[in-house]
């Protein structure tokens, strides 16, 4: 299992079991909750790194420790993509509502 | 009026009888005379009729009777319809018509339904649909060879994924577990669940065995060489991409399409179920397919049972 050893800081990747996955997802949720509280949407944006370091350092470390490197990147990207998609859907819905109300009046 | 009278007088002047002339004048002047004269004609007709009926009993038969000479008109005394002018056509024929019509209707409806069943069964065979599936050779978690022939004889559900999948595959595999339990409990349907890896470089038979032990019992994990896996994915129209420059030991993710493939006992593709099917709708969908499945022999019997009247439905 060589790939477990090679990492940025010689990080030991967590095993791929149900419990490990749950642990990873839980720490991810905690981390995202913290990001929500400081209004950070894209954690991969370098502008936000300082903010995260000061407010969510502990959660960030936990997340890094409990999840595989590729997963961390994936989840962080997913957070931003999901947010963008949600916002787009909301906009479309609002426009639809606006059009509907215009048609009625 | 003054003009009319001299004219008629001139016309009738040729007639010798003055009395008739007077009566004609009266007719022209007022139409009172007409009703009385028509009444007279009616009376005469009545007299003639009475005269005719009075003499009919004298004849044995009507002049144009269809009863042969020497025969009697009152032979079918039991017939209810004898005195009816429509005679046979109104009574017995009506019953006959309803009976024949009803039988024919029932028969044609039944035949139409049979043909429809055959047609839907044929449509579900997948002619014209993109061909999904085909022959492949992979190895199960014990290293035993597994080919498309192992799909025969039972319904199978195939999922493509990889063990290092962060969140979607585990969720989908958990959903599959719920489906398998529900199908068995609710409909007594047992599927053969198969997990095929898109990441053969990391997912060896041992890795899959360990990985799948976290999920529903009996899921068969298949892997093989990169070429074998690629071939299988191609046959099932599964897209997957491994990052191009992966160093040995590097952690990476595999991008792949997320579908469950339902295969029938002939190893033929039935339907692909995407993420939109949840724990309940997926069960109903699969159960519907399994229940509507017509085995090959039965299907062929239905198709080949062309009857002499089948041209009527073409």
TrEMBL record, chain A:
GO biological process annotation, one example: mitochondrial respiratory chain complex IV assembly
Location of this chain's protein in the cell: Cytoplasm; Mitochondrion intermembrane space; Nucleus
Cited SUPFAM superfamilies: Cytochrome c oxidase subunit h (SSF47694)
Keywords: Cytoplasm, Disulfide bond, Mitochondrion, Nucleus
Disulfide bond listed as a keyword: yes
InterPro entries reported for this sequence: COA6_fun, COX6B-like, CX6/COA6-like_sf
Main location: cytoplasm
MF-aspect GO terms: copper ion binding
Top-level taxon in the UniProt lineage: Eukaryota
Pfam assignment, any one: COX6B
Similarity annotation: Belongs to the cytochrome c oxidase subunit 6B family.
Protein name (record): Cytochrome c oxidase assembly factor 6
Name of the gene: NDAI0K00750
From TrEMBL, chain B:
Family: Belongs to the SCO1/2 family.
A family per Pfam: SCO1-SenC
SUPFAM superfamilies reported in the protein's UniProt record: Thioredoxin-like (SSF52833)
UniProt-recorded name of the protein: Thioredoxin domain-containing protein
Keyword line: Copper, Disulfide bond, Membrane, Metal-binding, Mitochondrion, Mitochondrion inner membrane, Transmembrane, Transmembrane helix
Annotated S-S bridges: 165-169
Taxonomy, superkingdom: Eukaryota
Membrane-crossing segments per the record: 88-108
InterPro entries reported in the protein's UniProt record: SCO1/SenC, Synth_of_cyt-c-oxidase_Sco1/2, Thioredoxin-like_sf
Subcellular location: Mitochondrion inner membrane
GO-annotated biological processes: cell redox homeostasis; cellular response to oxidative stress; intracellular copper ion homeostasis; mitochondrial respiratory chain complex IV assembly
GO molecular function list: copper chaperone activity; copper ion binding
Lineage: Eukaryota, Fungi, Dikarya, Ascomycota, Saccharomycotina
Gene Ontology CC entries for this record: mitochondrial inner membrane
């Amino acid at each position: 299992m060589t790939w477990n050893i090679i990492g940025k800081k010689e990080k030991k990747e967590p095993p791929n079991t149900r419990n490990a996955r749950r642990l990873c997802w839980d720490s991810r949720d905690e981390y995202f909750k913290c990001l929500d509280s400081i209004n950070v949407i894209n954690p991969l944006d370098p502008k936000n790194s300082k903010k995260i370091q000061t407010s969510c350092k502990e959660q960030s470390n936990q997340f890094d420790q409990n999840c595989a490197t590729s997963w961390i990147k994936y989840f962080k990207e997913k957070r931003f993509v999901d947010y963008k998609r949600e916002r787009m859907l909301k906009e479309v819905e609002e426009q639809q509502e606006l059009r509907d109300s215009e048609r009625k009046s | 009026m003054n003009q009319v009278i001299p004219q008629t007088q001139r016309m009738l002047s040729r007639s010798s009888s003055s009395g008739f002339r007077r009566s004609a004048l009266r007719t022209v002047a007022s139409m009172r005379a007409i009703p009385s004269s028509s009444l007279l004609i009616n009376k005469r007709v009545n007299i003639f009729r009475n005269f005719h009926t009075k003499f009919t009993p004298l004849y044995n038969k009507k002049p144009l009777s269809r009863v042969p000479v020497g025969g009697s008109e009152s032979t079918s005394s039991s017939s209810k319809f004898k005195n009816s002018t429509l005679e046979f056509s109104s009574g017995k024929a009506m019953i006959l018509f309803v009976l024949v019509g009803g039988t024919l209707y029932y028969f044609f409806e039944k035949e139409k339904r049979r043909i429809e069943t055959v047609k839907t069964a044929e449509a579900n065979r997948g002619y014209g649909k993109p061909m999904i599936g085909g022959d492949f050779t992979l190895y199960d978690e014990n290293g035993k060879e597994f080919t498309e022939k192992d799909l025969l004889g039972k319904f199978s559900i195939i999922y493509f994924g990889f063990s290092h999948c962060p969140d979607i595959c585990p969720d989908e595999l958990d959903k599959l577990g719920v489906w398998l339990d529900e199908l068995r409990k609710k409909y007594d349907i047992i599927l053969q669940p198969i997990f095929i890896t898109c990441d053969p470089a990391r997912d060896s038979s041992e890795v899959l065995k360990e990985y799948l032990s976290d999920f529903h019992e009996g899921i068969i994990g298949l892997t093989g060489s990169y070429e074998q896996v690629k071939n299988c994915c191609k046959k099932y129209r599964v897209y997957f991409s491994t990052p191009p420059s992966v160093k040995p030991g590097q952690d990476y993710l595999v991008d792949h399409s997320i579908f469950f493939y339902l295969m029938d006992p002939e190893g033929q593709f039935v339907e692909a179920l995407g993420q939109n099917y949840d724990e309940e709708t997926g069960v109903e969908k699969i159960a519907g397919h399994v229940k509507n499945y017509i085995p090959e022999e039965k299907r062929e019997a239905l198709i080949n049972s062309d009857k002499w009247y089948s041209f009527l439905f073409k």
